[in-house]
Amino acid sequence: MHLIDTHCHLDFADFDDDRAAVLAASRALGVARYIVPAVGEENWAALEGLAAQETGIFYALGVHPMWASRQTSGVLTRLASRLAARPSALVAIGECGLDGRSTVSQAGQLELFEGQLELAHQFQLPLLVHSVRANDTVATLLKRYRPAAGGVIHAFSGSRHQAERFWALGFRLGIGGTITYERASKTREAVAAMPWEALVLETDAPDMPLAGRQGMRNSPEYLPEVLACLAKLKGEAPSKVAELLRDSSEALFSRLLR
Questions:
Q1: Over the stretch 151-160, which tens digit does the pLDDT of each residue have?
Q2: What percent of the chain has pLDDT over 90?
Q3: Beta bridge partners of 33
Q4: Is the pLDDT of residue 257 over 80?
Q5: Is 2 annotated as a binding residue?
Q6: Which residue, 91, 111, 128, 150, has fewest beta-carbon neighbours within 10 Å?
Q7: What is a GO molecular function of this protein (predicted)?
């Protein structure tokens, strides 16, 4: 089995004491490649360093909406400079988007998200999109900007209509711990109805713990459990699902093949 965790924050301090052990354990379980998204300029260099040190780690650069107020003037210009360098392990822009729960200025979030949508168009890179209580607004913006390389709606939670709308705009759904909760019936039903090529796997580690692990650190080690849950929802063998979702991830993040 060859799995790709398309969204995990392995650079976070939560993994400082055992990062190597987590990678070894997850690799032993079939997780072969990882995409680590940025949250802001403050961790761009760390991601570049992590990818240089570890085989199979790729990264995205961007500004997370909840970090928007921490950024300094000119951050998008500096982001553009790093994107223009085209390092081989850089596969996407993100994590970026909108968070309707956050106390961070919605105007500030929007300004940075729109700037990153423009950069996605300029550099032809996929986006890792954070959309919390903002699915309809995010979809409207994606329709307006039409980033040609598409991307992922990270940690998708929503209706079948929203899922189909995102997919029609060229955005896959990031499938993680949410589907392991039976109470997330709307999202589970939406995911079950989508074609395989519209889905990718993720953990969002150390966040988004799976059902039964609430309050615990999430890890790429648990990605096979997300896979098993998805396979059950869609009535397919886990080994086949792993193959289909690897194909979906590689089709989106073409640089994973380099």
A1: 999 999 999 9
A2: 98
A3: 4
A4: no
A5: no
A6: 111
A7: hydrolase activity, acting on ester bonds
